[in-house]
UniProtKB/TrEMBL annotation:
This is ABC-2 type transport system permease protein. The chain crosses the membrane at residues 39-58, 70-89, 125-145, 151-170, 202-221, 227-244. Keywords: Membrane, Transmembrane, Transmembrane helix. The keyword Kinase does not apply.
Length: 255
């Protein structure tokens, strides 16, 4: 284990009120893999959006025919690649956690296993479900109202939304169910905080907010895209308020 990674682990513990906990190599390895996986999880959606945009632009001159049908096949492959990539990142983190747990001389455990209400929180869970439901409703409404090729962006949105929802569900399941990796009370607290941060990172709806960008290429700021912008602003504001509320609660608990 590199000294720099141990130092990062020490800083992570100190920033969360756990300066008295010794930064073990196992903890440093778990934090390191999470930093790298989060970087990958940020790059994958960006590549997905670029690929989706390229597919969409490629069929702009041709509104029907084999090329448009093949674009749906390519788009399905992009969605599958996104879900697979997120799953592989999740598996990478899980394997490092399993390896760290296997090296523990003994395991600590919570008297009552933290559930989704404790780890993710009811407000974030409700907001996440509302965002996916609202996105699906807007996409279906666009399909119902638009005609012909104008429906294509809504189809892209629904396919992408389904793929991202699957990836998010898989990641959240792992965060909530993976075994505790801790040997004492201090590392048990660190494991819990790591789980909370993992859940909140997975619950960020960044990709969902980005998906409608593809639609703007063709239709501009029509009423449906304007509705999307309002939806994004309202949900982003709600997320900011929840984050601010959680930060205030954390400060109050630390005091």
């Amino acid at each position: 284990m590199r000294p720099a990674e141990l130092e990062i682990a020490r800083q992570w513990l100190a920033a969360r009120g756990l300066a008295g906990v010794t930064p073990t190599p196992a903890l440093a390895a778990r934090l390191t893999v999470r930093r790298r996986a989060r970087l990958g999880a940020a790059i994958l959606p960006a590549l997905f959006l670029v690929g989706t945009a390229l597919v969409y632009v490629s069929v702009l001159p041709i509104r029907s025919g084999p090329q448009e049908r093949w674009s749906f096949v390519v788009l399905t492959a992009l969605v599958a690649g996104l879900v697979l990539g997120l799953s592989l990142l999740d598996r990478w983190v899980r394997r490092v956690d399993q390896h760290a747990g296997a090296q523990l001389p003994r395991r600590a455990a919570h008297s009552v296993r933290p559930g989704w209400r404790t780890v993710l929180g009811v407000p974030r869970a409700v907001l996440l479900a509302s965002i996916y439901a609202g996105a699906a409703v807007l996409a279906v409404a666009a399909l119902a109202v638009r005609d012909g090729a104008a429906r294509y962006p809504a189809v892209i949105l629904l396919i992408g939304l389904g793929g991202v929802a699957i990836g998010t569900a898989v990641q959240l399941r792992h965060v909530l169910t993976h075994p505790v990796v801790a040997a004492d009370e201090g590392t048990l607290r660190a494991d819990f905080l790591m789980r909370v941060e993992d859940a909140r990172e997975v619950a960020l709806p960044t990709v969902v907010w980005s998906l409608p960008v593809v639609s703007v290429f063709d239709t501009g700021l029509d009423p449906w895209n304007t509705g999307w912008l309002v939806f994004i602003v309202l949900s982003a504001t709600a997320l900011a308020l929840i984050t601010f509320r959680d930060a205030r609660k954390a400060l109050a608990a630390a005091a």
